[in-house]
C-alpha cells in the first residue's frame, strides 16, 4: 500500500494496469468522505455566497482525494484542471476514450488474456472482469457468458480436463456462466493444492513450532500430533473426511500470528492402534486446512468430550474412566498418535480413487454398494465428482433400448447372450483385434475371450461352456446371438444340436433383439476407454483393460439385478471383496524368481517396475 490517505482509508495509486479497480475504489472513497457529488455535478446556479464557499471547499477536498491517489506519471494529465469534475473527466479521457484504437486495444487484451504461471484463480478471474469492464465502459456489449469463455480460453493446459467436464454438462444456455466456471475452477485449484501439500510434505505449521523438530525424527504426512495449544482438530488430508461441508470464508491463526485459510469442515475417520489392536476413531467438527503439512489433535477438544488425557513414561494416554481409548508415542518433543499402518488406512479412500480402481464403473453404484455393505474390504467418502476420463471415454453414442422384451431367466445358463466385437483399431499385445463376450441372463455374470480372428468364436464358446458347466453344474439351454457368420458355421450348429442347446438368432439388421450383449459391449468399451485415458496407457493394452473391466463388472451392482446384488453373489454365492483393487495403469514393483534372475544374469533381489492392471 502507498502512503496516500483520506482519513484511515488507503488505496493503491492509479497505474497503467489497475484503472478499473482504482476507479471502483476511488468512487467508494469519495462517497465515504461525502464529496462524491463534486465529481459529477457543477455548482448550482442559484447558490448563495455561503453555499458557494462551501462548494469550493468541498470541491477542493474531492480534487485532493483524487490527486493523492494518482501516480506521478498521471499527475501531469490533471495539472491544469480547476475542479474535481474536470480532474475526473481528464482521467476518464485517458483510459476510457471511445476511439477505434482504444476499442481495438481493449478487445485484443480481453480476448487474448491468459493466466500467469503462479496466478491464483480468483486473481485471474478478477483481471478478466476488469478487462470486460473496460470494454463495457466503451459501450461494447460483453455478457456473463462471454466473460466465462474468456476465462476458459486463458487457462493453462492443466485445466483441459475440467473444460471437457464442463462441456459434458450440456444445456449450455441454462447452466454455463461465470459463476459456474468460477466455482469449478476454485474446486480444481483446491484439489491441486491438496495434492501439492500432500506430495511436498510442507513444514510443520507454526502453531506447534514451540515443540522443536530434530532432523532425526521420523515423521510422515499422515501423522496426527497431539497438541495442547490447538483449539480445534485440524487436518490437511481431504480424503479422511466422511462428511464434508465447504466453507466460503474462515481462517486459523498459527503461532507466528500468521493465518491459514480453512477450506471446509466435517467428520474424519481413521483406525487407531491401541496396544496392537485396531479401533475405529471418528472426530467431529474437524477443520480442513490444505496449507498445513500435518494433522493436529486438539487436547482441549478431547477433554470437552469427557475424556481424560495424561502424559507418562514417554506416552500420552487418552482414557474414558478405566478404559484406554487411544495412545500417542513421544518422538523428540512431540507426541504422535498411534494409528494403524497403511495396510488398514489404504482401505479408506476417496470416491474418486475408488471409482478409478473399479474400472470407472458408475459412481452412484459404487457409493450404494459401500453404503449397503454389498462388498467388503473398502470404505470411502461420498463426495460427488465429475470424472474427466469418463466424460471422454463414455461419450454418448447411438442408443440401444434399455427395456427387456422378456422376463429374466430363472436359473443360471437357462439363457446365455453372446456377441463378437471388433476389429479394434489397435492390435493388443497378444495380437488380438476381436473379443467375444458371454453373459448369463440369470446372474448377469460375464466371461470374455480375446481373439485374433472371428473364426475362433466356436472354440471360445466350447471353452466358455466347459467353464460355466463346471462352476454351476448346469448345461447351457439357450444361446442367443446375432446372425454373424462366426455363429452360423455347420460345425457350430452341429455342436449345439448334439448338446441339446437351442440357438436363438436375431432378425437381420435388428441388433436390439440381442440387446443384453450389445449393451454389454458398449459398457465394456466405455470402461476400457476411460481406464486407458485416465492413466494415458497405450491402446495396445486394451485387452488387459478389458479383463479388468469384466472382473470389476462381475462385482458391482446393476439395475438388471435385485437391489444390493452383484453377479458375484448369484454366480459364486458369496460377497465379493474389492479391497485388493488398485487403479488400472498404476506403476508397481515386482520381484522376479531367483531362477529367472540367474538365467538372465541378474543379481538376486533385483526388481522391475511395470504398469499394474
Structure overview:
Helix content is 37%, strand content 18%. The protein has 613 residues and is an alpha/beta fold. It has five domains: 19-95, no CATH class; 100-196; 218-345, Cathepsin D, subunit A, domain 1; 398-571, Ribonuclease H-like superfamily/Ribonuclease H (Nucleotidyltransferase, domain 5); 582-613, no CATH class. Strands 17-16-15-18-19 form a five-stranded mixed β-sheet, sandwiched between helices. A four-stranded mixed β-sheet has the order 2-7-6-3, with no helix packed on it. It has a four-stranded antiparallel β-sheet with strand order 9-10-11-12. The longest helix has 23 residues, at 178-200. It is flat, with a radius of gyration of 34 Å.
Helical content, roughly? 25-40%
Mean pLDDT: 78
Could you tell me the radius of gyration in angstroms? 34 Å
Q: What is the number of helical segments per DSSP (H or I, 4+ residues)?
A: 22
- Main β-sheet description: 5 strands, mixed
Strand ordering within the main sheet: 17-16-15-18-19
Residue fraction in strands: 15-25%
Q: What is the distance, rounded to the nearest whole angstrom, between the alpha carbons of the first and last residues?
A: 56 Å
What is the CATH architecture annotation of the largest domain?
2-Layer Sandwich
- Which fold name fills CATH's third level, the topology of the largest domain? Nucleotidyltransferase, domain 5
Shape: flat
Structural class by sheet pairing and helices: alpha/beta
Q: Given this structure, which CATH class of the largest domain is correct?
A: Alpha Beta
Low-confidence segments: 1-7, 197-219, 342-347, 602-613
Number of beta strands: 21
In CATH, the homologous superfamily of the largest domain goes by the name Ribonuclease H-like superfamily/Ribonuclease H
